[in-house]
Prior knowledge:
- The chain is mainly alpha-helical.
- It has 3 helices and 3 strands.
- It has helices at 30-39, 55-61, 76-84, and strands at residues 2-3, 27-28, 72-73.
- A 3-stranded mixed β-sheet has the order 1-2-3.
- It comes from Cerrena zonata.
- This is Rhodanese domain-containing protein.
Amino acid sequence: MIHSQNLEKPVPEWAASFPIPQSHPPSIETEELAELLRTKQGGKDFLVVDVRRTDFEDALDTQGIKSSRALILSTGIKGWLTRYEEDTNLTVKLS
């Protein structure tokens, strides 16, 4: 299930220097992303990209790309790692 994101979260100090997002993409739950990774073909059916703040706007919104959509991982990477860090089928550790 995809949810609208609550934007009332405190902004970390490092993020305050970035532009304020103009669009507000919905979120995806950690378990939903894990299910996509288990049942669909990455790179064909979906692509997971780590972006910050307004990165997705440059890539999708300002270019008028309508065939793709951005979703925000509801728990962020920290929540993902808490749940799936040791699952090598879902999480790849880069050196």
